[in-house]
Specification:
2 domains, flat
Length: 264
């Protein structure tokens, strides 16, 4: 019997995440970098232990119920955000436009019952892990690209041609390009998993269709940005991609009749 159970560890993680959010938004004049990093890392450590305990207890990864999907995606998004803060210190103020999403998922997670689940026979394959992992990379990178695009337009709109604006724009576009690569892998691994589980690579079920539409949307934005430098339109288009991806991850699996429908 663990000394600290998974629920207590999850709540502790959310407390640290909330502290990071408060630090990011309250200290506008002087960004408290060390405190922010400490809060994020402590939150991730506690969250990792919570996920590990649940995985050990129920016997499968956190990708079946809505609670598990929210928890694992909150963990991966916070990991991506923490890595961004560490690697792009000069652009860290952009996280104020990124933090709302993990904050929303955190509240949603705490309001969702943590019911135990079982692993369907069709989920018992290695391809599922590749599919899920690439999807988490995709969503985290798309979140960062979207936050940077919004930050560039809202905070640097009057600095056209400045080095800071150009750096933010370049970083956002590169993150979107990497997001596209990981979404492509997600679709590829998903197709291989579908063939292994249901005997077909593609069936145009609702989840597959929405994922494909998101992929098309990202391709369009990547090509559009090469020839149209207008920041406002780029920010809107990237945001639209993210909204579509968010609905694909957290909406369609729980309302559709797809074979890999989530269990609420």
């Amino acid at each position: 019997m663990p000394i600290l159970d998974e629920t207590f560890l999850l709540i502790t993680a959310c407390v640290f995440y909330t502290a990071a959010l408060i630090i990011a938004y309250l200290d506008r004049m002087r960004f408290t970098y060390e405190y922010l990093i400490a809060a994020c890392i402590l939150g991730l450590a506690s969250h990792t232990l919570s996920l590990a305990q649940r995985w050990d207890r129920v016997g499968h990864g956190p990708f079946i119920s809505l609670h598990e999907i929210l928890s694992s995606n909150l963990w991966s998004l916070m990991l991506g955000l923490t890595c961004f803060i560490l690697l792009a210190r000069r652009q860290r103020e952009a996280m104020r436009f990124i933090f709302p999403l993990p904050g929303l998922l955190m509240v949603w997670l705490l309001l969702t019952p943590p019911r135990d689940t079982h692993l369907p026979a069709t989920y018992d394959t290695l391809w599922l892990y590749f599919h899920v992992l690439s999807g988490k990379f995709f969503l985290a990178l798309l979140m960062l690209a979207t936050g940077l695009a919004i930050y560039e337009y809202l905070r640097l709109a009057g600095e056209k041609g400045s080095g800071a604006a150009a750096a933010i724009d370049s970083t956002s576009y590169r993150l979107l390009a990497f997001a596209f690569c990981f979404e492509s892998l997600m679709l590829l691994f998903g197709a291989v998993w579908a063939q292994d589980a249901w005997g077909r690579y593609w069936a145009w079920d609702p989840l597959e269709t929405w994922a494909f539409l998101t992929w098309i949307c990202v391709i369009f934005v990547l090509h559009w940005r090469l020839n149209h430098p207008r920041r406002a339109v780029y920010a809107i288009l990237v945001s639209a991609c993210f909204v579509l991806a968010f609905l694909t991850f957290f909406g369609v699996p729980f309302v559709s009749t797809a074979p890999h429908k989530g269990m609420i």
